[in-house]
Every structure is written in C-alpha cells, then in structure tokens.
Amino acid sequence: MNAALQTQLDHLVDDLARHDLAVVDHFLSPDEVNDLLMLDAFQGDLLQLKRAGIGKDEGKQINEAIRGDYIQWIDRERAPAPVQRYLAKLDALRDAVNRELYAGIRDAEIHLTRYPIGTFYKRHLDQFKKDDHRKLSVICYLNKDWHAAQGGQLRVYPADAPIDIFPEAGRLVCFRSDKLEHEVLPATRERLSITGWMINQLAELRYL
Ligand code: OGA
Ligand code: MN
C-alpha cells in the first residue's frame, strides 16, 4: 500500500476510535474522481438508477418525504476499473479497522448515489431495526468545487453538537452505523457519491 494511503488510514482509525466518526480529505485524487464521474450511472439519464427505498425486504418502501436519492448497487465482479480502484482502497480501509479496532468486517455493500436538486435524506440511523450487520458507513463524495451556500451537507449528530460535512470531491466520511444519527440536507445542485457499509457477514448471504 502507498505511504499516503497508510497515513490517511492511520488517522481514520484514530478518529473512529475517539469520535465514532472520521473525515479524510483527498481519499480519492482528482483523476480518480474524474474517472468515476465518467461512469454511465453518473453521466446518463437518472432513470437507469433505482429510487432508493427505506426499510428492508417486505417492509421496504419508497418514501420521498424521507429520502429522494437514486442508487445503483455495485457488483464487485462486474464493476468497471474506476470502481475497482475505489474498492481496492476500501479493502485497505477494512484491513486497517479490522487490525486496529477488531471491527470484524467481512464484506461491504456499496452503491453509486445521485441526489437530484432539492432532494434529501431525513435524520436516521444506518442499521435496520432487525438487522445489525452494518458496522461502518463509508461515503465518498464526487462533487468538485462544492460551496457551503449550495447546501447538501451531511449533518451528523454526536452526543454534543451536530457536525456538518460538505460533499466535496475526494472526501471520505466514515462513521459507526449503529451509533451516529445523520441526515442529508437538500442542495441547489445535483449531489453525487459512492455510499457503502462495511458488514460483519458476507453480502450475498443477506439476500438469500
Ligand atoms: C445514507 C446516507 C449520507 C450522505 O445513504 O444512508 O446517510 O452524505 N448518506 O450521502
Ligand atoms: Mn445514512
């Protein structure tokens, strides 16, 4: 692994252990971001993606009053090269949290995400009511030159004061899925990201 990534992961592990939350700027380089932005899922019509739902299995429903994003799940075997490169970095992240924090992560479930202008995701926790396999939420943003006035921040709610994180290109956010409530505020421009969860079982098993 290269030394820069190693340093970023050392900081991430420290911040996660201390605050249940870590923010890593420049996790992806501008070139890596550009390559991801070229993907059909980001360039093409929104209708090739799915409306994201809430809940799971038979309890699943679409509710625009709660979340308005469109998603495309990533199948690791078929993922194009720019996604593979991102997944390789997430593998390094997984190894770091397993080694340093005994996180017990075995797999990840990941989707490409688009929030159209004005859409949001209301305050929530990333664990499902009857399923606690999601251990870490990991989001990487792809929006160049994002300005605070454009909104679209991730607002995280630790015990003390809320923290706002803007979705600037290359920035990675990682937090405890079972602990930190959060929300996505509406933005005046489209908001793109790769959203994932590190889970403590194999992803395929969850869909049997
Ligand atoms: C989610 C989520 C946050 C973000 O997809 O569950 O909370 O900043 N995303 O996109
Ligand atoms: Mn969430």
Brief rundown of the structure:
The protein has 208 residues and is of the alpha+beta class.
Secondary-structure blueprint of this entry?
Elements: H1 3-19, E1 21-24, H2 30-37, H3 40-43, E2 50-51, E3 70-73, H4 81-101, E4 107-115, E5 121-124, E6 134-141, E7 154-157, E8 163-165, E9 172-176, E10 181-184, E11 191-199
Antiparallel strand pairs: 1-9, 2-3, 3-4, 4-11, 5-10, 6-9, 6-11, 7-8, 7-10
Helix pairs in contact: 1-4
Bound molecules: N-oxalylglycine and manganese (II) ion (MN).
N-oxalylglycine (OGA) is lined by residues 121, 126, 139, 154, 182, 184, 193, 195.
Keyword list:
single chain; 208 residues; alpha+beta; Jelly Rolls; 7-stranded antiparallel beta sheet; 4-stranded antiparallel beta sheet; 24% helix; globular; binds N-oxalylglycine; binds manganese (II) ion
CATH homologous superfamily annotation: q2cbj1_9rhob like domain
Estimate the strand proportion. 25-35%
CATH class identity: Mainly Beta
Contiguous low-pLDDT stretches (5 residues minimum) are none
What ligand molecules are bound, each kind once?
N-oxalylglycine, manganese (II) ion
Which outline best applies? globular
Structural class: alpha+beta
Order of helices and strands: HEHHEEHEEEEEEEE
| Rg (CA only) | 16 Å
